[in-house]
């Protein structure tokens, strides 16, 4: 039987109380571009012109405490050092059988992850 969804994600939906601050954080710290926005409702973010995620406003936000997805990187050590040097709260860089990962918090307190697979 063919799966009802494909293996390609269309994008990630994440929530923030302060969309302007959060979208600037994602731009400054991770290199996202803001491609569309209404700071009372949503911000659309892209990497190298490709849509990646939406931030939606949620005044009652309870930050996620465990990463529910992982960003990919081509150089995990560089990503780790760059975020740490930029004042981002990062957990330790872990090595597993086929990949390395670390978790970090965005400016809203959401726990996120970056991974690099061999």
TrEMBL record:
Residues 8-117 form the VOC domain. Pfam families: Glyoxalase. InterPro entries: Glyas_Bleomycin-R_OHBP_Dase, Glyas_Fos-R_dOase_dom, VOC_core. Signal peptide: none annotated. It comes from the Bacteria. This is VOC family protein. It comes from Cohnella endophytica. The lineage of its organism: Bacteria, Bacillati, Bacillota, Bacilli, Bacillales.
């Amino acid at each position: 039987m063919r799966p009802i969804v494909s293996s390609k994600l269309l994008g990630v939906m994440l929530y923030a109380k302060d969309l302007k601050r959060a979208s600037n954080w994602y731009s400054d710290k991770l290199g996202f571009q803001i491609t569309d926005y209404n700071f009372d409702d949503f911000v659309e973010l892209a990497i190298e012109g490709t849509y990646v995620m939406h931030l939606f406003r949620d005044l009652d936000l309870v930050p996620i405490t465990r990463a529910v997805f992982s960003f990919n990187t081509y150089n995990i050590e560089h990503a780790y050092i760059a975020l740490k040097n930029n004042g981002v709260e990062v957990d330790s860089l872990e090595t597993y059988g086929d990949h390395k990962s670390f978790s970090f918090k965005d400016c809203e307190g959401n726990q996120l992850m970056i991974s690099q697979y061999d």
